[in-house]
Request: fold
Amino acid sequence: MKLSGWGRYPVVDAQVAAPRSTEDVLKLVQQGSAIARGNGRAYGDSAVSASNTIHMKHFNRMLAFDAKSGQLIAEAGVLLADVIEAFLPRGWFPSVTPGTKFVTLGGMIAADVHGKNHHKDGSFGTYVDWIDVVTGDGTVQRCSKAENTKLFEWTIGGMGLTGVVLRAAIRLRPVSSTWIEQRTLVANNIKHVIELFEQSKDATYSVAWIDCLQTGPAMGRSLVMLGEHAEAEANAVAPQYRKLPLQTSVKRKLGIPVDFPSWTLNSLTVRAFNALYYWNGKRKPQQQLVDWDSYFYPLDAILGWNKIYGRRGFAQFQCVIPLIHAEQGLSELLEAIANTGAGSFLAVLKRFGAQESRFSFPMEGYTLALDFSVNAKNLALMNELDKITMRYNGRFYLAKDSRMNRDVFQQAECRADAYKNYRQSEGASAAYSSAQSERLGL
Amino acid sequence: MSKGAVLILGARSDIAMAVAHRFAKAGYDIQLAARNSESLGTDKSDIELRYEVAVTLHSFDALNIGSHERFVDDLPQLPAVAVCAVGYMGQQAENERDVQAAAQVMRSNFEGPASILGVLANRFEQRGSGTLVGISSVAGERGRATNYVYGSAKAGFTAFLSGLRNRLAKRGVHVVTVLPGFVATQMTEGMDLPVKLTAGPNEVADAIARAVKRKKDMIYVKPLWQVIMMIIRNIPERVFKRMKI
Reply:
């Protein structure tokens, strides 16, 4: 069947099987070139193997929960949305969440996802206690910080290339309400936004939306949004919710029924949207109470939002620039984008904290993420952005990548050789590969 | 406070599991009945964790009709709702060659389900309340060359349910007949089904929950099936017998 990631580019004609038992998974793995797929929310071809894609949708059961430690044991295909639905009303929330709740546990481990609290709490992998993995030799192995350490470390952030995650134990964090106190700060330019981030390191959550079409002195103007879990006891929660601080209401979802024609997204509409968003944010009160769903998952309210980029799909560019080069690197990236006028609806900037890991994306610095519809001009622009990132010793997020060129990746990712060697030594090279790993030579 | 229990017969199927989730979400305790019920342990923990209801597992063999009275006696409580998702499609070609295989399909889709629902019907009647849900099939609306063994058993089951409904209508017991049409499940995996006519297991579960709540008698999951089956039922036999459908 035709298979792609969330960006709907590239589209690969792929063999997909959806096993129902561990034995079925083992049989599939024996065929080689396997890659596990969760809910297909990686943007590109990370979870696509032309010959052997293993869809984990039937591994969707929660197995145990310890209400003392917040440890949840669940199968790899369980959706984060289901975890929240089950446990937020009981006062538990994911320790780390990406910008969509429609991701699976296995996918979050494979991409070692980060959230708006990375600067403070680290990545998802920090809250994984153990993982059961089908490895290169076709056996199921439990790994953790204490046993099978290497497998554990490479599996977190390893993009599914160490094996198939069957189940894992993760830790949730206790919260006393479902509400977030949000504070919005306005930054006039890139220097200012970095200043604001550096001053806000104590905030639990922080993220900035950048108007990426501004040039000159206003380049990098943005809205920095800080957030804290509202305490139920404090007067932070609006009176009407104080009685039921953990109630999670079901909001009406909006759907995008058809592909937007490609002309609807041009520099004019993007410019207008960005300006509106900025002035709207500036006008609103600095401090407000926001429900968890709108705060963490604004785009999830529009099901199928990937269709606004039209039939040809879209690509996301996400890199991280090390702290010392942040201002310079980000300026160059924004300048290159503004020059082509190929702005993206959603340009997101975020401060990362320090992270030591085998192959995960985050490192201390600033990460910038942008969407572009797929066309020759934008693909050329993204190649340009790759080069700028490399010049500043930056790194690329593979969960978002769908188009990077092998040479660029090999040059930019100094950990690629170590990963290749590890995979070779564990028999994982032949057993596991994705369209992405083949494209990038992993 | 629990709302009582929902018994799911043939709990291993995708539709059955979706129905279990749907009723657990609404606050019912769940009784999962299937052969080798102990292997449903992960489903039990999953439903308990998600919805904070009690889930019990019960060994049940639809074909062993002698055990059905005892099976109901052994349930922790007489359920408020019983959903029978027992069924087995088999292979038409094999059913034509092998009478044993054909009998197996007939018994799995008619004799077994009718027997257990008959036992439950008597208990519900005695209590004066309850809902019985039988998952039958559009295949039972008219016999076709491609699957008439399965279809004829489902036709029998549909007629049984309609008779049961007629008998219990004034006794406080409601009977729902479900004709799902195509459903994307393990049973139909690999078949090339038309997207617009194919429901997901969750859609079937939602439709069943709605039908139980609103006391519907007979439901198709996708409304288009009602039109299609009306047409198929009304084609004259002398035309129908020459058709390839």
